[in-house]
Amino acid sequence: MKIKTRFAPSPTGYLHVGGARTALYSWLFARNHGGEFVLRIEDTDLERSTPEAIEAIMDGMKLAESAMGRRPLFPDQTFRSL
User: Fold this and answer.
1) Which residues, in sequence order, are CB contacts of 50 under 8 Å at separation 6+?
2) Where in the sequence is the signal peptide annotated (predicted)?
3) Cβ(66)–Cβ(39) below 8 Å
4) Residues of the chain above pLDDT 70, percent
5) How much is the average pLDDT of 16-22?
6) CATH of the domain at 71
7) pLDDT single digits (tens) 35-72
8) Domains in the chain: how many in total?
9) Cβ(56)–Cβ(19) under 8 Å?
10) What is the DSSP string of 12-67?
């Protein structure tokens, strides 16, 4: 069985150190077990979500993107990729 972990922030603001730490731990766990890490942008708080927050999260994760080996997923893409 292949390990697949994810980090799924709600795009309501900037990526903060707690979120970055959680993403790092999830990525390290997947990497340590030969698995895959996925960044999935949540859509559970549409009232407060903004395109600028999505961009800020993506900018905050750019350093990790090359290590992750894939682009982030959005909810409408999740089921198609599993």
Assistant:
1) 11, 12
2) none
3) no
4) 76
5) 87
6) 3.40.50.620
7) 988 888 888 888 898 889 888 888 877 765 555 556 65
8) 1
9) no
10) SSPPPHHHHHHHHHHHHHHHHTT-EEEEB---S-TTT--HHHHHHHHHHHHHHHHH
Residue 10's Cβ-side half-sphere holds a number of Cα atoms within 13 Å equal to: 8
**Is the pTM here over 0.90, yes or no?**
no
Closest CA to 36 of 81, 62, 6: 6
Q: Show Cβ contacts of residue 5 under 8 Å, excluding neighbours closer than 6 positions.
A: 26, 27, 29, 30, 35, 36, 37, 38
Span between the terminal Cα atoms of the chain, in Å: 14
With beta carbons less than 8 A apart as the criterion, state whether 7 and 23 touch.
Answer: yes
Decide: 5 and 35 in contact? Cβ < 8 Å.
yes
**Residues near 81 by beta carbon (within 8 Å), at least 6 away in sequence:** 38, 73
